[in-house]
Amino acid sequence: MTRPVHVVGGGLAGSEAAWQIAQAGVPVVLHEMRPVRGTDAHQSDRLAELVCSNSFRADDWTGNAVGLLHAEMRRLGSLILSAGDAHQVPAGGALAVDRDGFAQAVTERLEAHPLVTIVREEVAGLPPADWDSVIVATGPLTSPALSEAILTLTGEGQLSFFDAIAPIVHLDSIDMDVAWRQSRYDKEGPGGDAAAYINCPMDREQYDAFIEALLTSPKSEFKDWEHVPYFDGCLPIEVMAERGRETLRHGPMKPVGLTNEHDPQVKPWAVVQLRQDNALGTLWNMVGFQTKLKHGSQSEVFRTIPGLEKAVFARLGGL
After folding, report:
1. pLDDT above 90 for 158
2. Rg of the chain in Å (alpha carbons)
């Protein structure tokens, strides 16, 4: 092929597609609208910017489908996995990355590839007829004009879902006289760290009060006409709580596989975990704590968590 393949969207999928096509010897034009047109979630113009979790989930290929996919992608020369491995941060058995270093690495490698041309522009509608081969990989943050064109073409009622973002906390504001470092079941991650998470324990009374606060605190509201299709793999924490008061204790706040080093004889009723978010280890995100609570409510409710009473938030959650 001598005519280029056009890839619309410079997220994870678009960046990987552009890389694989170029590595096969085919020229690629990668269209990314940032910074010409921003989104409500991105904070930079880097390709493959992670706007939600910094985790690519489990990395063990021997007993996990996601880990097996990682292994297959590495054998195929994946750009995303290569950049992820290069900018890995401790996360137990998961592959988590420093989000800034990761996105910068993906951007630099695509910019340096001789067969990749990056065009910073919005594709405001269906691709032109003279683009022979096109991949549209714009995801949930597709621009309104392109979204409308795709909706018209496909006859679909909706193309995207609401995703949620968890808060990030400064490490030096966490009370380590209450919290402790440990991965569940002391499982070592790819980097050999068996204490990759910070754990904040709750007893039953604290947990019940926390659930009540989640359910009753002010939340972001939607317009009457706005249907809210949540992504079930990343539900806001208060939505999980609405599905049952024990849901969180058997989900992201499950206390299993953990022993409180400050009081080993007492098993926590629930545990809030934080995972390293940057290479320096100064920022930690609250695992599973995606939320649509209003910012004032987040600061108040999340500071009731033992160990986070004086938490300083680098970023609050959002939808």
Report:
1. no
2. 21
pTM over the 0.85 mark: no
CA 313 – CA 299 distance, rounded (Å):
8
Could you tell me if residue 161 is inside a domain? no
Q: Does residue 161 surpass a pLDDT of 80?
A: no
Cis peptide before 35 (omega within 30 of 0): yes
**Where are any strands of DSSP class E within 44-192?**
55-58, 88-89, 94-97, 116-120, 133-136, 168-170, 180-181
Count of all residues that appear for the chain in the document: 319
The tally of domains found in the chain comes to 2
Place of tokens 């940032």: 34
**Where does the pLDDT of residue 225 fall: very low under 50, low under 70, confident under 90, or very high at 90 and above?**
very low
Tell me how far apart the alpha carbons of residues 162 and 35 are, in angstroms, rounded to a whole number.
22
- Is 195 in the same domain as 269? yes
Contact indicator for 168, 283 with CB cutoff of 8 Å = yes
Which among 60-74, 95-109, 153-167 has the top mean pLDDT? 95-109
| Residue 194 belongs to domain with CATH number | 2.40.30
- Residue 251 domain-assigned (yes or no): yes
Identify whether residues 74 and 211 lie together within a single domain: no
Which residue segment(s) compose the domain that 299 sits in? 168-315
Please give the pLDDT value at position 115.
97
Q: Are 291 and 236 in contact (CB under 8 A)?
A: yes
Residue 104 lies in a domain: yes
